[in-house]
Amino acid sequence: MTPEDLFTLPGKVALVTGGATGIGRMAAEALVRAGARVLIASRKGEACTAVAEELNALGAPGSAEGFAGDVATEAGVKALAAEVAARTDRLHILMNNAGRSWGAPLEDFPHEAWGKVLDLNVTGLFTLTQALLPLLEAGASADDPARVVNLGSVMGEIPMGGRAYSYAASKAAVHHLTRILGQELAPRHVTVNALAPGPFPSKMTAFATADPETRAKVEETVPMGRVGRPEDIAGCVLFLCGRGGSYVTGAVLPVSGGVNVTTGTPLFEAAQ
Prior knowledge:
By secondary structure, the protein is an alpha/beta fold. 43% of the residues lie in helices and 14% in strands.
């Protein structure tokens, strides 16, 4: 089997939620370049349509379609699942990327910041996967399972709140849910894995990555000395979704430049 066989996706149909910006946009482009037909959905349908047009102009072997879809409510999930079912009778890849954050000092962190963040990041992720499971099973086989890729965060792996308490807790929930579904869906030929990114340029992290001076300070805190790049996401997504990742499920893949292993305390360093 050649490297091309392992990491290309001809004939595959994928859905990327929140795929118009940030990591979702990076993943959608990777999937299109690998030959997949990629459905891109977010609350801002016009933005999804524009991104789909940009991706179709690449001349890549895949294609993209953009439309509106809201994962934050039960009605929105049902509408999105119906729209996907109207466009395809099977789904090979579901990337649950849509998410939101909320930052505030501990003393001022509002009650509403919990429901709004968890409703999208956790409940919406679960219910959309649930709703699309028949399409995923239709696209699955023992030899080539369907794939679910959830977007977690390094903040869900280590005790790093960053004043985004509900966001960090939601991503820890995503990681645990990934492992649970990985176990339960394996016999149904559906793999479930997650990415746990560190800092990447995106709309959500613009406060820390848009300004070059601020970005440089953030990069100093990353062991590998930089923020993430599109190819870092692309490589992980194509591994998990391609033939090379067909035997992997329940994994949470750190894509954080080493941030995920920076919490150890050097207990005996002073004595050496």
